[in-house]
Design a protein that fits this description.
By secondary structure, the chain is α/β, with parallel strands linked by helices. The protein has two domains: 91 residues, dopa decarboxylase, N-terminal domain (Up-down Bundle), CATH 1.20.1340; 200 residues, Aspartate Aminotransferase, domain 2 (3-Layer(aba) Sandwich). Helices cover 37% and strands 11% of the residues. The protein is built from ten helices and six strands, in the order ααααβαβαβαβαββαα. A six-stranded mixed β-sheet has the order 2-1-3-4-5-6, with helices on both faces. The radius of gyration is 23 Å and the shape is globular. The relative contact order is 0.10. It comes from Pleurotus ostreatus (strain PC15). GO terms for molecular function: carboxy-lyase activity; pyridoxal phosphate binding. Its cofactor is pyridoxal 5'-phosphate. Belongs to the group II decarboxylase family. Pfam families: Pyridoxal_deC.
């Protein structure tokens, strides 16, 4: 999309938003669609080429709006409202147009959530272990998200030393020695925050060697932080050097930020987990006002149990 195409699409978007509000009171407050109604409209595989934006905009009108609960509807009454103004919409547009990051919460949230899930899983497997003995592993090149997770959760953090001789990569031997030493001292390392593309040097921890060590330490959760480098995995020529096969085989969770190389507006930090049950077991709190028949039956995925916040944009 070039500037003039953006101008044209922008005019149309504003017109459609205005029309939406003009006709909002004539719509049903809640949708009548069934869970999974979009599935048949999605391609089995990602397309090789992008679509014209006009088709995407039309799909929003055709598929998304019919599935919405209209929070701005004059007859909408729930536990709380959501503030929405036309000035705010325009402010969002202006803020997105420059895309200067405010560094609010992205990969740091993903790491924190992974630590919470890993701690919960470890404590269920080893109920006699005290929290004071639990240890988070990072390296001397790991982003500050590792130390911050420890501070928030009241957990010890050990930064394993990596050297320039190894290109600041965490090697399997270093990890094994640390695990053996902590085991002798009664400490319980339960998660390793590995990195593919460190902020300070672009270092890549050796996930293949880490995976080999995990065979002797199956309770160690491996979270891979690939905040800026991970998007490069979309390019086949980079997958070997970035340890994609090892990540798929050994990582329990993986994070990358699409607002860096992914051509997506801030903030778009994505977290994948090998087993979502580990997250929901650790974070599920369901008061009566959040229960639903679909959620109780497991026919829908309730993403509020995947992260710290209740609401999502």
């Amino acid at each position: 999309m070039d500037i003039e195409q953006f101008r044209k699409a922008g005019y149309q978007a504003i017109d459609r938003i205005c029309d939406y509000y003009y006709t909002l009171q004539d719509k049903s407050v809640v949708s009548s669609v069934k869970p999974g109604y979009l599935r048949d409209s999605l391609p089995v595989e990602a397309p090789e080429a992008g679509e014209d934006f006009q088709k995407i905009a039309d799909d929003y009108q055709k598929f998304i709006i019919p599935g919405l609960t209209h929070w701005q509807h004059p007859s909408f009454f729930a536990f709380f409202p959501t503030g929405c103004t036309f000035e705010g919409m325009l402010a969002d547009l202006y803020a997105s147009s420059t895309m200067n990051p405010g560094f609010n919460s992205t990969a740091s949230d993903s790491a924190l959530i992974a630590v919470v899930a890993a701690r919960s899983l470890y404590q269920r497997r080893h109920p006699s272990v005290t929290q004071s003995s639990l240890v988070i592993y990072t390296t001397t090149q790991t982003h500050s998200l590792g130390l911050k997770a420890g501070l928030i959760l009241g957990l010890s953090v050990r930064a394993l030393e990596v050297t320039w001789e190894d290109k600041f990569s965490l090697r399997g031997e270093t990890l094994r020695k640390a695990l053996e030493g902590d085991e002798r001292e009664g400490k319980k390392p339960f998660i390793l925050l590995a990195t593919v593309g460190t902020t300070s040097s672009g270092a890549i921890d050796n996930v293949s060697e880490i995976g080999a060590v995990m065979k002797d330490y199956p309770d160690l959760w491996v979270h891979v932080d690939a905040a800026w480098a991970g998007v490069a995995l979309s390019c086949p020529e980079h997958r070997e050097s970035l340890h994609l096969n090892a990540i798929n085989e050994h990582a329990h969770s993986f994070c990358t930020n699409f607002h860096k190389w992914g051509l997506t507006n801030f903030d778009a930090s994505t977290l994948w987990v090998r087993d979502r049950k580990y997250l929901t077991d650790a974070l599920d709190v369901t008061p009566p006002f959040l229960r639903s028949a679909e959620g109780d039956a497991g026919t829908v995925i309730d993403y509020r149990n995947w992260h710290l916040a209740l609401g999502r944009r």
